[in-house]
């Protein structure tokens, strides 16, 4: 062995080692999140439920024993045993038991006499009142002597995993996460009181399972402490099954334990352990102590006069204390969660990597792929641009709105109107209708009569609902030769009578900003569905690239801008679009669940999505009635229940935005709306009574609606919490 080479190799300084500057609980939590995200990428755990192929139950000597044949999608069949006190009534604290590399199930569970006095951890825990599930790692025993040729089976298995870019540890953790789900859902187990025990390789699995699992869990880890360089260099014992490939580039073993803080942690190691150095283990323990002190978490470290074993008594004591109380209340329900799983992240990184390797950083193959994927959800061809705002502005510049009127719903995001202002238009506002939340056709007709110079109308599909009255809006505009530009920033994938948002007007503008249903970081799309879509698309391409008359040309035929989408953003957007069918299905499923759950909640009424519309549930909208104070409700939901509502769409009408109240009437504050009455200016109505003045319907909507948290990773349990919180506050 080239020991100099080895020593040199192991002097690597991990880039995510916990820095001393991490000295507040918040800073610790942020560091821990970063490290866990990196570990998740290295581990490549395939989340898949474990199957139970067979169960045999026996009882003896006061214990109930369920022998399970488990099936893992990654590793095939392996064994587990559920062990619990025989007289169990009600639910008990539960522990997933992960033994060492050579631990056999019968020994862990005390079925056969243990080879070491401490081996039968599961039996001890069950006799102490826990429900335990032990799983074997399934390493070894499959290859005959001749093929093995003296080599370690775990090593051979690890090499096979390496061939596919995966790791044995990642597979073991995947199975442990599946086993944890089985245990948590078991009728004997209290789902609020679940912990992990691991010895040696099992401790590595327990550690990574806790780091990658969905919620903090107490961990008891025996005979697995030290630094990777010491463990590898001194004894060459770093088993492939116990480390994630590449981990030392980012973090050392003490960092991983530190990242568990503030979840309860018990570490024990022996001074006579042939596999680790006490001084190195002590130094590791100190690093973990510092993290636990910062994060105010309970930590126990026991240095014991033992070999590579377990002190069962300490383990039982720790788990008894750690699981005496249910885990802290569930984490808050945020207003929004943007989630890319590891497979998506790797797909994005691969594409970004190719873009970097080719040097083609903008307007390349990723852009073409993004436009192609988007078409599935718009029904018509589109041209990708830098943002939703750019999409709107480009469409309006092609229509030609300078010094003419553009009609905008008074209830929309500021960008809808600002794009028209930047394109040189005078903006006038129009009231909405309350079924589909689109432009009110009667108000639009009045406005079109009043402003015969109108060049474009911008319907907005609020909350991802394409209004059933859009057809009337389009017909009114067609009669007068006025262009329709749909602001479809909310509405990717939403349909009306089977037709996609963005395919009704001459142009549709989409946004891929992080708050929207599909995201690219920053990004937009202009769809072209007018009389000559190919020519319109070509014009969009020119506008987005400095008005070049062709890509690569040095001739410019219009004052275009830099409205290009980079390859890096396109890579993110493409991957998000490739999973968009699942995104939409999840959003619709969650919305249907809210529809049922909200039934009977007082003072609250879900918005009914009209017949013929399939929304994308960019927002799940509901109305507060009676004297409910929305701001106070939101504050109480947050403070008393940890529930954040999503942002309104919108809480201020555009006519009340400072930019429009400040500008002179000809720049756009005047309102064209409302049953033929003379419209008032937005400014003139401030301080007026509710639902009075111009835009009565939009004003009512802006005051009374709320948006419930809804995103694909929202769980049913979180939905229950949201609705229970609303019920509590509104009753
Ligand atoms: C988000 C949004 C925009 C602007 O999109 P960006 O990508 O942020 O420029 C325009 N209109 C509406 C209705 C939006 O919600």
Describe, in plain words, how this protein is organized in 3D.
With 731 residues, the chain is α/β, with parallel strands linked by helices. It has 3 domains: 26-322, 3-Layer(aba) Sandwich (Rossmann fold), CATH 3.40.50.1820; 342-578, 3-Layer(aba) Sandwich (Aspartate Aminotransferase, domain 2); 581-730, Aspartate Aminotransferase, domain 1, CATH 3.90.1150. Helices cover 38% and strands 16% of the residues. A 9-stranded mixed beta sheet has the order 1-2-3-5-4-6-7-8-9, sandwiched between helices. Strands 10-18-17-14-13-11-12 form a 7-stranded mixed beta sheet, sandwiched between helices. Strands 16-15-20 form a 3-stranded antiparallel beta sheet, with no helix packed on it. Helix 7 (168-185) crosses helix 8 and helix 15 (388-399) crosses helix 19 (533-544). The longest helix is centred in the first third of the chain and has 19 residues, at 25-43. It is elongated and about 95 Å long. Bound molecules: pyridoxal-5'-phosphate. Pyridoxal-5'-phosphate (PLP) binds at residues 387-389, 412-413, 415-416, 460, 487, 489-490, 511, 513, 524.
**What value does the average pLDDT take?**
92
**Named CATH topology of the largest domain:** Rossmann fold
Percent helix among the residues?
Answer: 25-40%
Outline the low-pLDDT stretches: 664-691
Task: Tally the structural domains.
Answer: 3
What is the highest CATH level, the class of the largest domain?
Alpha Beta
